[in-house]
User: Fold this.
Amino acid sequence: GKRPPAAHGFQPSAVKGQEGDTCLRSTDCSEGLCCARHFWSRICKPVLTEGQVCTRHRRKGNHGLELFQRCDCGEALVCRPEKGERDPSVSRTAGRNLHTCQRR
Assistant:
């Protein structure tokens, strides 16, 4: 008989990478993941959500030096300096350099 709809279009090549799978570009990864450098390979990592620490790229050029890239912030979020008021244990200097994903 017919195959169940769940098996529709299921070829190994069409399966998107899960978290931790190696990848070449973000389109190789499942939704909610991006392809980011991890040591000398690239793996699917989760796109950042609100409140998560993000990497602020001053210049696009020094991207290649990072051994551990982070994904960008998710939709409707922007990478901004953390105010630092929420956690008093975070010193002012540490809080100043910390960027987190915040609503636009």
